[in-house]
Every structure is written in structure tokens, then in C-alpha cells.
Amino acid sequence: MFRRPHRRRTARSLVSAAAAMVLVAAGLATGTGAQAAQAGTAAGATSPSDKIRPDLAKQLEGKTEGDFWIRFKDRADLSRARDIKDWTERGTAVAEALKKTAAESQAKIRTELDTAGAKYQTFWATNAIRVSGGSLTMAQNFAAHDEVEGLYAPVAYEVPETTKGTDEKTVNALEWGIANINADDVWSQYGVKGEGITIANIDTGVQFDHPALVNSYRGNNGDGTFDHNYNWFNAAGTCATPCDGDGHGTHTMGTMVGSDGANQIGVAPEVRWIAANGCCPSDAALVTSGQWMLEPTDVNGQNPDASKRPNIINNSWGTRLPSNDPFMEDVTLAWKESGIFGVFSNGNSGPGCQTSGSPGSLVSNYSSGAYDVNNNIASFSARGAGQNGETKPNISAPGVNVRSSLPGNGYGAISGTSMAAPHLAGTVALLWSAAPALVGEVDATRALLDNTAIDSADAQCGGTTDDNNVFGEGRLDALALLNAAPIGDTGTLAGTVTDAATGAPIADATVTVTGPAERQLTTGADGKYSSLLPVGDYQVVVAAFGYQSQTVPATVTQNATTTVNVALSAVPSVTVSGSVTDGSGHGWPLYAKVTVQGPSGVSDYTTPGNGRYSFTLPAGATYTLKVESQYPGYQTVTKEVVVGTGNVTANIAVPVQTNACTTAPGYTFGSDGVYETFDGTAVPAGWSVVDHAGTGQVWKFTDDGNRGNLTGGTGNFAIIDSDEYGSGGRQDSSLVSPVVDLTDVAAPVIRFNQDFNHLGPDRADVDLSVDGGATWTNVLRQAADVRGPRVTEVPIPQAAGQAQVQVRFHYYDASFEWWWEVDNVLIGSEVVCRPTNGGLVLGHVRDANDNGYVNGATVTSNDRPAEKATTVATPDDTELADGFYWLFSSLTGTHKFTAAAGNYVSQSKNVDVQADWATATNFRLAAGRLSVKPAQVSATLQMPTGKVNKAFTVTNTGGAPVEVEFSEREGAFELLRADGSRLTEQQVIGSNGAPEQRLNVPTSFAARASGMSSNATSPALGPQAEPWTDIADYPANVMDNRVVNLDGKVYSIAGGNGSASTTKNFVYDPIAQSWAPIADLPEARNAMTVGVVGGKIIATGGWAAAGPSGTTWSYDPGANTWTKVADNPAARSAAGQAVVDGKLYAIGGCTTSACTPMSNSVVRYDPAGDSWETLPNYPKSVAFASCGGIDGVVYCTGGNDGSASQKASYAFDPGANAWTAIPDAPADNWASSFAVANGKLLVVGGSQGGAITNAGFAYDPATNAWSNLPNANTARYRGGAACGFYKIGGSSGSFTATPDSEVLPGFEECAEAAADVSWMTINKTSATLAPGEQVTVTVGMTANVDQPGTYTASVAIKENTPYTVSPVAVTMNVNPPKTWGKLMGTVTGTSCQGVSSPLPGAVVQIDSWAMSWTFATDAEGKYAYWMDRRNNPMTMIVAKDNWKPQTRQTRINTSTPTVEDFALSPIRC
């Protein structure tokens, strides 16, 4: 087991020193000792010291014990095995050769180990021995043996850390992964689903009777019984029959083989499967499992049989990082020679390179990476290269949100390469089923997989499109694989199985085909079957429960369908019925499932109130009924029933499980002496703890050292933990039982579960007294490891017939040792389950409004509140309604019980609880219920002032009052473009925008240029691309301006031209499409902190002539005036800015004209008190960060600390008054244009990764994730932006200010709260409605948006009812303003040969009397834009490189489109 590193203890310093001396002498340490050792070694040989691997040497250094592996040099010659064609002979030959080599190599060391009394385990699949608790001296002795290749430390393998996923949409009831790899196409086109192939997994185990797995388990005898011999290897020692306490193994097996009605989760649902739970208690468990797979044994580990080995083994486990551990490599190489195809997951340590986990990273193993439903590689998918530079993974398969089986008969989605590997394993099964000649041909199969994978380019970790270290050879394609396989001549056998009397199709009939190939098929609901088969003659046996079987011949011919229809005759039937009751004392009726074992599928659930069941079976046969109680703690029993020609009654009494007395309702543990489970946290009644040493270090009943129950018991336990008490402590303590009367017990024992982890001189004794503790006799002394799970039994015949018996567990001579755990102590001869007084209460909870059934309600005994139950759905029992509950009541007679459920009114009833019986009581719960009419409202309005009110009514139709809250919820938009097309929100967000630009030009933090002219040349116009759209240029070249949106208009405040700050400010009207001046600032500033608070614009800080200033002004747009307010205590420029809860935040910033050093100060302005407040510092000292306020929280990203650009991001919660980290931005960034819109922090441009760019991204607090925005048309830094999403000005490098302005349409929701909708209002936010009452809500819509189109939102209705109330959909259709018209046309070019064709990317410049716009033609040479007629007249200039520009005058007409087509000529011919 795992042992955590022991803390160094002073008492053992001499041991550590001595060990270090031995290490030097052995040559493990550096210096002369090592050199001396080398001198005596023959040339070319490995010295003994070098054989002890560094990890092991480090592990043994300073410790008295340790586990290690001994690997031997000799290797079995398996090269001829692949030439053996017989499957059994090949496997046997491999196993025999491996065993012979291991026996000969290991003989000497095994003798030495036996002589030393050492604990060890031998292996033959890898020629190795694993020693437990070996010493350094022992390791050095073994290293001196010539036959030893090396000594290794154990390797920690683990179940990969998968993540819980979400269900992806299925395709025709298939899981997405199966459809993605085209497995379903293989089923339909080739008619194979894995028949004739056995698949296995080494994992955490498998729930063998899961509905999706049980039919394909090789141990399923088909008659309701199971044979686990050769089919299950209990490597972990946790369960004798296949089980899974983790869920990982059940999930991976489901992806390979699972099928259960609509749950089509498996790639190859007709294979047979076996399993081993070797993952991952230890590396030994994994190696043992791998060895068992070569030659499976019976459940006792005897009678190995290589014929029963699987064809394919899935391994979804490994190390976190690459490892060259040789032991599993030896095993997997043996698999290959035996004809077994091993599949491995590549690990979940991505997205970094060199992260492939072992053993998937090894050259010898074939591993899978993972991708998602969009065929994108998963971020967690580990990348290569692998061992010796091998490309890893080898291939990739679906591994994100993979839905499969889970223990408890459930299903769930998980993500990981663990989920990808079983897709690959199942695909190999399909291949080998369709192409038997490939079975065992591992190299040929790998080649086919490599050559048919779908190429997926990704060179981030090296490689090519065809073969790289991200996808490997590419994405798995099962259909392409089979299309390329050597399948041979085939035909199809098909038909329908029907009832001979009625002609009705028979579902689930078994069609067994024998001949050149073997298949076992099952008919569908339509009675049909079909399979692709090699040509030849076959025998077809058709059988169905309740019918007489038939055998018919069939001949399959090439490329043809042979139809064999079979009509089966039904046999006479009778009714078998009875009752199921408790058989251990209470006798009450049991709710149970009664199943007829065998292929019939016949079952019935008993009626909970009386235990009755009934079903119809064919007459004249003997059946075995299996009874499974639906109440916990009962045994599963079987009963044989002989059916003649008449009806049969079979009553069945079911006893409780003697090891689960407290689980079964109404029972408790008892014995003929004393039985104690230590489930409390204090000394049990009658027991005592004695401190013989007087140190206070005694037995406890709390697991302070977090060991877990290692005894094999469950729940709490008794422990004395010497290690937890620490160095310098001393323990001598007894756990003493009460006095036990064994007068009537003839053969008493002391039986208990334990885990004694021995280290040094500590002892664990069990003592007996027969005189009430006056004298004690030792009956068990333990001075070595007795590791759990372990049941120890000590006969105490001397206590038989005695009345004063006591037992004590005595731990002593201990000081900083390990521990002793004890659980489930019996002093007597047997443990029994004793009934306690009480009865069952059961029934249903229903809804008083619609008479439906309520799941999740709680039914509680008022007088015993701990006795309660929760109602559940009963999907498997079609005769029992949902809302079912049952509970055990320890009180009989009349008592009150209460049913309660969320948002229902509780109901209480007096129930007369009958002892030893099931008392039925049903409840009906009242609740409020809302009716909303109409369910949607809509209107058509004209920009910008169109208004309308619409209303909906909410009525309480239920039986209880309802508290209702109404709130706005934003929806989406669909913009109407001038050419009549529409642009949706998803098209905007999903667009790439313009080509990415990266300007590698000088940048600066400083306030202004030194000696530079403000008339620096702007860069040439960049590529124009939707969805970013040019708006009127800013009236001046500007940078370091701050931009805000107030009442739908865009204000640009201050800034500069690169050499001087300005007092000038302008406002942009999206309707007039023009800029206008507003009042000047009282003083020139640039890089201020600006925000809209209370309808006014607050502007603070920024660079003044002498450096950063703290002066603050408030702008009133109604009065068009600036007013000075309280000075900012932190004079900063280029600070991050945000508004939250009506207050302006300034974050970090520059402290000098040169900017450096940057600040981490945070201040907040409250206009209500005209005051500033200092807040906790930002986690980094930065300037030019991008910030914004969303839903009461400040979010910031990026900035520059003076030496490096940042991508770290943080959130400030005013309530907690603290900053916390959020995910890093996709790229480091500073001096970007930023704003808050649509509930997201939007960031575009700035300096990213050392270059000025046009790239953008957005942070969404709702998902705590970043996503990309479309690239802008211009690459700028130190510009401004506002909600809208308007990007104004900025520099193209250094201090080259520009007037360029553009907008990303659709981002117009500017309220701080993400839920607020700018164009919609509601007149009520809450109401209380008594039953029958109603309220009318008025929805106001105003067309105060920037673009025509369709805008959607909703009114959310929050209420305290148990029902779902859909939001009221709100739709506003917006027409353009009366002053807008369409300007559109086509730009063509006429070549020198007179051929005319469209000119994409031509620049269309429009100049009015006051403004200028720049657009570009699309791929068809077209342009179309909304323009305001108030800008008439307009001059149009159309140009494109190598073509002569054209100029003309035009005017906008609001009634008809203005069409201006241009035909350009070449500059030269």
C-alpha cells in the first residue's frame, strides 16, 4: 500500500548515518568510494552500484525498509510465436517460454529471499521479483548477482484525473463519439458489431450486471447465472465478483461494448468482455493483471488457460509524465507476441509538449489522444514526443463529454484520454470481427489504423499534417479502417422471425449462425436480423423464450443477400405468482424484483404493500426465480419452481444479510456475546481505554491521521496511531471490552478486522481475562506486519461457559512507529441480525394541483425526526408510480408523519403504524402555480425614438400564495444590413474579422513624444472586413483618449496627438453618424480615468503638463459644463477604469511622466459624498490595464509592469473587499481598447506578445472563461473604446496618433448588470399572488439602438413554486431612422482585354461636409451601407492598387436606395 514519507526522527539518526556509510562503500555516493568500486569491475560490465537505480537509492537512503523490483537480464525468445496460427497454441507457447525463462533466472535469488524470510512476489510476464520491506543491504547483495539487470523503485500509476462532462447531443440515439468515428456505418454496411472477439480492460473494475454490459459479459451463462472463472481477476482484492467502486472502469467498458435500448454507448456491442481491477492500487497489481491476461485462471488463481485470453486489452491509466519503467513494457511486448492488441490512453497532462504518460508514451504501445465533438484536440490531451522521440499519441479519438455507463445502472459524461482509448479498442474489435485473418496481427492492424486515420494538422509539438505529436496519425475512422481491410468474399444473411400463429414479429430472438464464421445475432423490435458473413454454408438456429426453437440451413453467396425467415410456434403457458416477505423475524411484505433466470427476460416487481408478484411462463419446465429486495441489507435469493400444466404459487421469504444488519430496516447487530463496530467517535458504552504509559497517547475513535479504514470494515474504527503522535512520544495503551457473559457459548472466539502496520519494536497483543479483568492471559502476540484488509480469529475455549470474560487490545513498546487499526470485534461465537420493534411506512406523495407524483419530497416521523425517507422515481418498475417512499418506523401505533417538498405546502397525517407490517399512507401537497398570458410580446418600431408598451398577465391558478419576481434578461440580435441581408449575434462573435495584423513598431509608456511632431504619418489603410465597420473618423488625430457611452451616445474625453495633451472632447451620435464638439476640459489631459456615474461623466487623473494629476471633474451633458469635484488622492495616469454600484474605480497606473514606476494602488470615487476611498492594492503594479465592472464586480486583465506585458487577470468583490485571480487572458496585453458590453469585458488591440495588433478577446464572468473576438480592421494601441463596441483613435506605433474609428455592432447592452436590457423596461419587479389573484406587467420598448434589425430579450419570472415558468419572450423589430438611406453599388474592373469582373477589397471613401468614412467591397465587389441624408452632399472616391481611382458626387435618398456603381480601369496596360 501507499506510505507517505516518514518524518525524520531524532531517535533514528544513527540508523540514517549508518545507511549513508554503506551507500558510500557500495559506490552509490560520489567520491573515492565510487571510484574504488569501479576499479574492481570487469570492462564493459555494469557495476552492482549502477544496477540500483537512482530513484531506489534515494528511497532507501536513511530508511530501514522499502519495496523494490529486481529485474533479470534473461529474456524469453518469443520471435517464433507469431508464426503459430492456432490461437490456443500461440498463447500457450508464449506463456510457457516466459515461465521457463523466469524460473531459471530467478532461482538463486528466490532461495536467498526464502532463507531470509522476506516477503516477495514473482512474475513471469516480466522477468522480475518485487520485494516488500526489503533492506538496503539486501538490495546491494542482489545487485551483485550477474543474472540481475537492475533494481528499481516502485512506480506510482493512477487512474487518470478525468473531468465530469456534459451530455452532447446524440445522433440517431447514438453517442456522439460512435457517430464521429463512423462505427454505426460499419454496423450497417458490414453487418458486424464485434462478434467473435473478446475484449478486456485493466481498470478500476466493472459493474458486470449493468444493463448496458451484462449481456456481453463473457461470464454470463445466459440463464441468469454467471461464471466468473477466467472472466474476472480481482487484482485489488476488493471483490470476488466483478465490481467497480470508482466508476472509471465501468465507463470505459461501456464505451467499448455498451448497449441498452436507447443507450447505444458502445463501439462494438456484440463482443464479449472480461476484466481485471488492477488499476491502480500498486504497480504490482497492474503487472499481475497484465500477466493474468496472457493466461487467465479460475477465480482461485488456478488452472491457467491461454485459450481464454482476450484479443484486445484497453488500458486507460498511466503515469502523469513520461516514464521508461520496463516492467509493464515487458508485459505489453508479451501481449503483442501472444497476438493481443494493447490500447493505451496517452494521459491528461496537456496542453504542454512532452507530457505523454507512461506506458502510453512507450514505443511498444499504441496510445490515443482525445478530441471533442468539433474535432478540436482536447486541452488536457497529453502531447508527445514519447520514448526515443516516438510520435505520441499514435492516433486520436473522441474523449470530451463521452457519455457511458456508470455503477448503479446509471450513465454519465466524462472527459479524458481514458474515454478516447476505448473508442480505439472497440474499433479494433470491429476490424478483427470483420477480417478474421487480422486477428493477432498487431503490426498489420497498427499500419491500417495509421494509414486510414483522418489527417489533422497541428505542429505545436512537432511533426507534420500526416503525423504529429498532438493528433498522432490523425482522427480515428472505423469505416475507412474496414474499407481498407482484407475482408475477403462476403454476402449477407438476413431475415425476420415471427410468431407462427399471429405473424407478429418476435423481438429479442436469438439467431445463432455456425459455419465458416460464427455469429450470435439478436432480432430487433421488428423481428429482423442481418449480418455480413464470409461466403459458405451455415446452420441457423433460431430460439426465443416461450417458443419452440428451429434449425434451418443457409448458403451465403458473394455480394448477395440470403433471406431466411423463420416462424416460431408458441408453447402453452401458465401463471406463476406468490408473495415475497421478510424472512428474518419481521415477516413484512418486501418490495422486490423477481426475475426468471435465463434468457427469458421475464420479471416482475412485487407490490410494496403486500409483496405480491405474478407473471406468465411456458408450461412443463423448471425455472429458477431470483429475488432481489429493493430495500437494502437483504440477501439475493433463488427459488426453483417446477411448472406443470396448471398455475403455480411460489411464496418466498428473504433473510437479511448477516454482515449488513444495520443496513436492513428494523434490524441491528447482535451476538451470543458482544459485537462492536466502533461507528461512533467516542469510547463505546461498556468499553474503556487504559493509558498504561500516562502520556495521554491512547486508542482513539477518530481518524486524525487520515488513514482510512484499512481493516476491511466500513465506517469508523478504533486506532492507536503512533506515527500521528509524532517523534518523542510513547504509547502503551489498551482498548478493553466490557465484561461478557459466555455462560451459554460452547465455542467462543475473538474475531476482529485489523490493520497492524508494524515498524520497529512495537507490539500488538490480544489478551483474555475470565475473571472480570483481575488477571490477564495473552492469546495473540503480533510483532510483524499484519496488513489489512484482514480478519483475525482467535479461539478462546478457556472462556466457554464463563460469565466474567473480558478482552483487551494492548499496543505497547511504541515510539513514533506506524499504527494499529481494529474494527468489528466479536467476543462470542456468531454475529446475528436481531429485529427491533417497528414497522414499515410507505406510499406516494402527489401534487394537489395536477395529481402528478412528486419526486424528492421528504416524509418524516414527527416523533422520530431521524426516521425519514425521500420519494423517488421508479422507472424500472412500470407498475409502480413515481413519488414512492418507504421508511422504517421504530414507533408503532398512531403517530404523526409529515411530507414536505421544495416550494410545496407541507402536509401532516396521523398514521397507525402496524408492527411487523407495511402501512400505506399517501400525501397530497398544495402549491401555488402560475399561468402567464400571452407567452410573448413583440412590436415594430423606428429608430431612434420609437416607443411602445405591451403587457402580459400572471395568474396564480394553484392552491398556495406565490412570491413572484420579474427581471430583464438579454437575448440576441439580428442586424439588418443595407443590402437586405441579416447579421446574427453568433455570426458576429464567430467571425474571424480582418486578417490578423502584428505591427512590430516602437511603443512607449510615456506621456508624450520628446521633440516629435504631432503630424506623424499614419499607416496605410488596413484590410477592411466584417463585422467591424468603419464609422466617421474622429475630428482629430488622437491617442490616450478615454471613451464612454452615455444615453446611446459615445463621448471621447481628452487624449492627445502624440506630442501634446488636449482639452478637446467630442460626442458621436450613431443616428446622425457624426461627431460634434462638447465643452472643453478646464485643463489639457491625456490617459485619464473616466466613467459614467449617475448620468454624469467623471474624469480624473491623467497626465497634466507636470505629470500625473489628481484633479477630477464632472461633466453634465444637459448643461454641457464641467465642474470640479474632490481631488483624486492617487495622482495617476493610464489607470484601469471601471464603474461598479455607482462608483468609479481607478486601478494602478503611471506615477510619472515617463510612467515608471507603475502603481498598484486602487481608489474609488463616490459622487454621492464627493469623496475618495483607498482600497486593497491590485495584485500587480501595472499601467494600461483593461478593466470593467460587471454585476457588482470589477474585472481587470493585462497591463504592463514596466518590464513585461501581463496576461494575469483578477476580480475585485467590493463585498469581500479583496482581489482574487481569474483565468489568464489568451495573450499578454497592455494599452488595449476596452469596454464592458453585453455582460462581458471586451478587449481589442493594444500591444500583445510584443507587437501592436488588431486581435481581441472577451471575458465572460458567467462561464469564467475567455473567448476570441473578431479581429478589428485597424491595429492600434493607447486608443479608447466604449460600449457599443466603439473603438476610437489610438496609435499605430510610438506616438503616431490616428483618427480611425470603427464599431463591432451588436454590443449595445451597456448596463453594469448583465441582465439589464437597454431598450426594454418593465413596470413591476415583484408581486405576491394569493390563489386566484393576478398581476399585469407592462413591458416598454424603445428603439434607442444603433442599428436596425431584430432584437430579442425576455422577462424572467422567478417564483417559489415547484414548477418551471418560462420567461416571456420579448421581440423588437427595428426599422432604420427616417433620415437614413441606403448607399450601395458594385465596383468592377475592366482589364486591358476588355473583360469586366468584380473588384473585392476596393476602398470606398465617402467625404461629407463634416465627416469622412472608409469602407471596402466584399468578395463580389459589392458595398452597401446605411448613411444619413443630413450628410448630403457626399463625395465618393473609389480606389484599389493598380487601378485608376474614380471620384463622383452623390446624395442619399431615404425613399429609394442610392446606387453608385464604379468601373475602374488599369493604371497601365
From TrEMBL:
<keyword id="KW-0645">Protease</keyword>
<dbReference type="GO" id="GO:0030246">
    <property type="term" value="F:carbohydrate binding"/>
</dbReference>
<keyword id="KW-0732">Signal</keyword>
<comment type="similarity">
    <text>Belongs to the peptidase S8 family.</text>
</comment>
<feature type="signal peptide">
    <location>
        <begin position="1"/>
        <end position="36"/>
    </location>
</feature>
<dbReference type="InterPro" id="IPR008969">
    <property type="entry name" value="CarboxyPept-like_regulatory"/>
</dbReference>
<keyword id="KW-0378">Hydrolase</keyword>
<dbReference type="Pfam" id="PF01344">
    <property type="entry name" value="Kelch_1"/>
</dbReference>
<dbReference type="InterPro" id="IPR015915">
    <property type="entry name" value="Kelch-typ_b-propeller"/>
</dbReference>
<dbReference type="InterPro" id="IPR006652">
    <property type="entry name" value="Kelch_1"/>
</dbReference>
<dbReference type="Pfam" id="PF00082">
    <property type="entry name" value="Peptidase_S8"/>
</dbReference>
<dbReference type="GO" id="GO:0006508">
    <property type="term" value="P:proteolysis"/>
</dbReference>
<feature type="active site" description="Charge relay system">
    <location>
        <position position="248"/>
    </location>
</feature>
<dbReference type="InterPro" id="IPR000209">
    <property type="entry name" value="Peptidase_S8/S53_dom"/>
</dbReference>
<protein>
    <submittedName>
        <fullName>Kelch motif-containing protein</fullName>
    </submittedName>
</protein>
<feature type="active site" description="Charge relay system">
    <location>
        <position position="418"/>
    </location>
</feature>
<dbReference type="InterPro" id="IPR013784">
    <property type="entry name" value="Carb-bd-like_fold"/>
</dbReference>
<feature type="active site" description="Charge relay system">
    <location>
        <position position="203"/>
    </location>
</feature>
<dbReference type="Pfam" id="PF13620">
    <property type="entry name" value="CarboxypepD_reg"/>
</dbReference>
<dbReference type="GO" id="GO:0004252">
    <property type="term" value="F:serine-type endopeptidase activity"/>
</dbReference>
<dbReference type="InterPro" id="IPR036852">
    <property type="entry name" value="Peptidase_S8/S53_dom_sf"/>
</dbReference>
<dbReference type="InterPro" id="IPR015500">
    <property type="entry name" value="Peptidase_S8_subtilisin-rel"/>
</dbReference>
<feature type="domain" description="Peptidase S8/S53">
    <location>
        <begin position="194"/>
        <end position="472"/>
    </location>
</feature>
<keyword id="KW-0720">Serine protease</keyword>
